[in-house]
Amino acid sequence: MQTLIDELLSEQSVLQTPVAQFSDYHDREPDLAPHYRQLIPLEKPGSGEQYAFEVALDRCTGCKACVSACHSLNGLDEDESWRDVGAMVGGDATPGWQQTVTSACHHCEDPGCLNGCPVGAYEKEKDTGIVRHLDDQCIGCSYCILKCPYDVPKYSKKRGIVRKCDMCHQRLMEGEAPACVQSCPTEAIRIVTVKTGEAAQAERVFMEGQGEHSALVESDITQPTTRYTGRRLPTTAHAADRDALVAQHSHWPLVLMLVLTQSGLGLLLATCLQPAAGVAFSFVGVSLFMAGMVSAVFHLGQPLKAWRFFLGLRTSWLSREILAFSVLLPLPLLWIGLHFISDFASKDSLFATVRVLMPPFALLAVFTSVMIYHDTKRSLWRVDRTSLRFFSTLLLMGLIVLNQPWIFGILMMAKLVWEYLFLRLRTQKDWSPDAHSARLMAGPLRFACMLRGALALCAVAASFISPWPAIFLLLGAEVLERMMFFRAVSAPKMPGNFGPQTA
4 φ, ψ to 5°? Predict the structure, then answer.
């Protein structure tokens, strides 16, 4: 015969406390787990392998269930999206052809975002190949957005950082399919294991049949691992939004940083060559340079973390630019300070030292700015065009200080003619990134383009009268030119999403 205590002890042994109930629930397999596990590898990638998305184009209906699931299960902000659905159309040869394309991060073998990040806020997992973003390391510079040719990283104004798809790695580690894979009603998305290395890159096909003028980025830039299968694209297929003339973001802090630092250095280098030009030009040059340095800070979402820029020196031109300008910074301050300090024994030798050091350090700093944009592989920002734009600002400002109005006028007119010749590409029949940029300048940006030309011509006329109005007219013209440098660029991305990139 059991006593009351025996009965209570027996009941307690099978009693499900809330903690025990949660533990049992956690150990249960997710709903439809056997079904979804057919769409993911059951084992981790081996040596020379990594995880990758595989998208069956013939199954994708464009329903955007993957977009909704990714947004919901990852707790994204209302205006944030890590997966997009776009469209491609057939072009002249196959006018009735259309294909929806879903895309997220391609977890590239050679990720542009990782290589460009100045603070090491990206890592590529060695065992899975997943490219992860480290939110706590990000400074919100958005350079990874410019470096990624697929428009994958997304800037969050709320957090001041960039975020992106991580293939739901925490779910994969538990044997559960990512949100997009689980939600697709036609099983168009799956996770597969792919080979890596040079031999695999040569055999891998990103999208079969991609045409020369499709506006899709070439896959050899970052070696994306995503595979689009099921349908071969017609050679004339192109992104549905290829011809949409939508200007990109202005990036005003960067516009001001580039123009003001380059203009200030132009004035300072001229006073180094001709000290008799006067202390006023030196003071204005230092003021412009320092204003440009300060404006750059406003481009960062997390500026207090920027001290870690040295972590990216091996691969990131942004890290190198920060280092170059940091080394250059004391020289302009020392140069202007020596003008106001009373004479001392080594003052003349210190003046001479600064005069010798400032030109090479200034030119090196501007060169790093050029390479930042050239390294994004965008056509409008290639090294020859960007070098001409950036270094001409230095030269033109210096010629005003050196009182060379004829040379200044000739070079200014030559630059305007060069810009006009670029605009002639807008009539080109076949699509190209440069033709797209020319159409933007002649279309939505035409007012800024005309005003830039008018200010430049006024600067030429003013240079024959006084250098001061010429300096400020040229500043206005260069600000507009640099604004169009950002707004008119043809930014590569996956097809179909109308509108500028979020940065």
Answer: -60, -40
Q: At what angle do helices 405-423 and 383-401 cross, to 10 degrees?
A: 150
Q: State the pLDDT at residue 25.
A: 62
Read off the CATH number of the domain in which 469 is found: 1.20.1630.10
Note whether 208 and 282 are same-domain residues: no
227 plus 271 within the same structural domain: no
* Confidence category of residue 43, pLDDT binned at 50, 70, 90: confident
Instruction: Please give the Cα distance from 236 to 322 (Å, whole number).
Output: 43
**Token pair in block for residue 168:** 């739901």
Residue for token pair 């700015």: 369
Examine residue 49 and state whether it is found in any structural domain, yes or no. yes
Distance between start and end Cα atoms, the chain: 76
- φ, ψ at 466 (rounded to 5°): -155, 145
The CATH number for 153's domain is: 3.30.70.20
State whether the Cα torsion 334-336-338-342 is positive or negative: negative
Average pLDDT over the chain reads 90
Single out the residue in 239, 264, 290 at which a domain terminates. 239
Task: Say if residue 258 is in the same domain as residue 222.
Answer: no
452 in the same domain as 351: yes
Which residue range is the domain that position 103 belongs to? 33-239
| Helix, coil or strand: residue 458 | helix
- Would you say residue 10 lies in a domain? no
The single residue listed with the structure tokens 């806020």 is 121
In the prediction, which pLDDT does 206 show?
Answer: 82
Whole-angstrom distance, CA of residue 458 vs CA of residue 465: 11
Q: Is 88 exposed, middle or buried (0-12, 13-18, 19+ CB in 10 A)?
A: buried
**How many helices and strands (H and E) does the chain possess?**
19, 10
- Is the CB of residue 86 less than 8 Å from the CB of residue 239? yes
Two tokens at 503?
């940065």
d(C-alpha 18, C-alpha 16), whole Å: 7
Number of residues written out for the chain: 503
Say what angle helices 347-374 and 317-328 make with each other, to 10 degrees. Answer: 160
421 burial via Cβ count (<10 Å: 0-12, 13-18, 19+): exposed
Beta bridge partners of 229: 56
Determine which of 49-63, 206-220, 414-428 has the lowest per-residue pLDDT on average.
Answer: 206-220
Helix (H, G, I), strand (E, B) or coil at 242: coil
Contact 488, 434 (CB under 8 A): no
3-state class (DSSP) for residue 155: strand
